[in-house]
Amino acid sequence: MQMVKLNISGMHCSACSATIEHNLQKIPSIKNIKINSISGRAKIAYEETQISSAQIMEKITSYGFPVSLDDSKALEIAYIQGLKRRLWVAIPLFLVIFSLHMLGVHSHWSAIVQLILASVVQFYCGLPFYQGAKSFFKTKSADMNVLIALGTSVAYLYSLYLFASGESGFYFEGSSAVICFVLVGEYLKSSAKKRASDELELLAKLLPAQARLIEKNVESQSYQDSKNTKWVAIDKIQKGDKCLVIGGEKIPLDGVILSGSAEVSSAHINGEELPKALSIGAEVVGGSLVLNGEIVIEASKDSNEFFVYEMLDLLELSQSQKPPIGALADKIASVFVPSVVLLSCASFAFWWIWSSNLAFALSIAACVLVISCPCALGLAVPLAIVCASMRAKKSEILIKTPDIYEKAKQIQTIVFDKTGTLTKGEILVQDFKNLSQESQDFILGLSYAMQTNNPHPISKAILEFAKDSTPLTLESKTYQIGKGMEARFEKQNYFLGALEWVESLSGANLQGIQRENCVALGNEQEVLALFYLQDSIKEHAKATIDALKARGIQSVILSGDNQASVAKVAQTLGVEQFFAGVNPEQKADKIAQLAQNGAVCFVGDGINDALAFKNASFGISFAQATELAQEVGDVLLLKEDLWGIVEVFDIANATLKNIRQNLFFAYIYNIVLIPIAAGVLYPFFGIALQPAFAGAAMALSSLSVVSNALRISRLRLSSCD
Known about the structure:
Layout: E1 2-8, H1 14-24, E2 30-35, E3 41-46, H2 53-62, E4 67-69, H3 74-102, H4 108-125, H5 127-133, H6 136-139, H7 144-164, H8 172-204, E5 210-214, E6 229-233, E7 242-246, E8 255-265, H9 267-270, E9 276-278, E10 283-284, E11 289-299, H10 307-320, H11 328-355, H12 358-371, H13 375-394, E12 397-399, H14 404-407, E13 411-416, H15 418-422, E14 423-434, H16 440-451, H17 457-465, E15 476-480, E16 484-489, E17 492-498, H18 499-506, E18 518-523, E19 527-537, H19 541-550, E20 554-558, H20 563-573, E21 577-579, H21 584-595, E22 599-603, H22 610-615, E23 618-622, H23 627-632, E24 635-637, H24 643-677, H25 682-685, H26 691-709
Parallel strand pairs: 13-20, 13-22, 20-21, 22-23, 23-24
Antiparallel strand pairs: 1-3, 1-4, 2-3, 5-6, 7-11, 8-9, 8-10, 8-11, 12-24, 14-19, 15-16, 16-17, 17-18, 18-19
């Protein structure tokens, strides 16, 4: 059994993916099919002895959907560029056609111009929809391509008939409008799909490209000898290999430290804001950064099983799952379009037999098709989304997926990562306690002198806290890896660093104190002072959480940091529920558990949040976040202000309401006027709708949708002040 990963272009909705799946399932040698119509990614299992991946690709292409191997970007890029070219042609031509139509210019030259321009839009810009619609003749399944091709062709062909007959009242602007706006939507969706595949590459880049491999059979005392090491690509690393990593380098593998000690930062892996001192026997994860020291690591697994690659596989799996989406487009494609065609044919047959008037019967059939042309439907959702996106951009918010507008209404819980999300990711001295008889100026001046020229995050926090003190002149100072600073002043030794280390050197054993996130200053007789560290909370964090609560959304904090640190932030912000010490997989599991009680939104900024983003209904990230978090987040805040989260929900709720109104305007004319167009009033009142009035009703429906959608651009949002 073989598995092929594909990129499929041109799918507008789940009806398209269902068409592909339904027809591939008829082939016995294809055993398992997973297609995501949103991302365009597909995984297909097949018997390689009976069919090849190339033959599968040929089959999918014959259904009207361009396809390429998942690791091949060429076809995907070409498809997006093709859409962009057609879009740049369609928009200006449509604007000219629309202007001539709205201005009521009915001269002969105006008719010729509209015909020429509409023909370019119809058969060049709309070519992808015709190519997709041809699959109907092979698969007998109606999808959005059929809907678009049929709707625009009806308006175009009837206008062509009017032109040939020397009449006016064309509907060229209707067919051009549908093609324009559908192209906009398809281009935006295809671009988002490409970003979704690029995010996986960003995750893989978390690991360094090479590792310093120690030659086999080298004794431990010779590990650091450069003659015994060589650089190799990390995909060559196997379980049991030994690698040397020095300060400033990323750890290239998952394994156990065999020798040496170092301070290691895993902030992007597990969310812990403070680096850890690791020595022999400690486990490390690839992608972590060695701040200082040298360590030799033995790989505990082969390279393809490293934690980062496991995350990569989980992300790919989550992308292949089908998200719940509205069934509106599917119902239109599978029910509305065939029903309208049948009704048009039935109306034509009935009135030809009833009246024996071929022209009258053709007029009735044309009215049914024209008034059913999905111009307003083609505008209803994408135009509202375009206006909402423009309004969001004014508030420095980038909404990347249109699903957000529907999902936001369902959110009951919003989960925040702590470090870098609710907090600034900058360590500060939150509290200070002088336990000695020495003056505070002496304590702070000594601490400042001991931490000068030390790039460690904790050192920077202490330097900032003690910046107004009078620095002392030290006789000497040395840095103890993973412990702290040792200095000599006026013939006495002082120690500044981990509380347990300072206690052991001073002979003290402090009781009844908070020991979490604590750095101590002491000498050989006593502990002199305590510095309590905390990540600073972002501005408007509490106002944001309070506003979300007022909107019926409960806030939860989910962090890889320690219990005391997370509890402190939760208490400050008034968050009742929080979880500490969770790794990336546990974050994803916790999101899934919370989702059992209602839809969940996740807000984060780190690579360690990638899986959590995928398990949430949607995710919000920041422009200042890691590249991957920017990519996997469905909403990107271009500002550091957390109040933007409240604005996201307000914009989404207003947009969803607007979309529902637009759909009402799009359908009400069809519901009321299709029966009239079919001639139900003619036998009783002698009223038969003329094609010109059918076109006017269609235009009025579109005008109603446009006018309503533009209201979003003027939406006023609440302020946090």
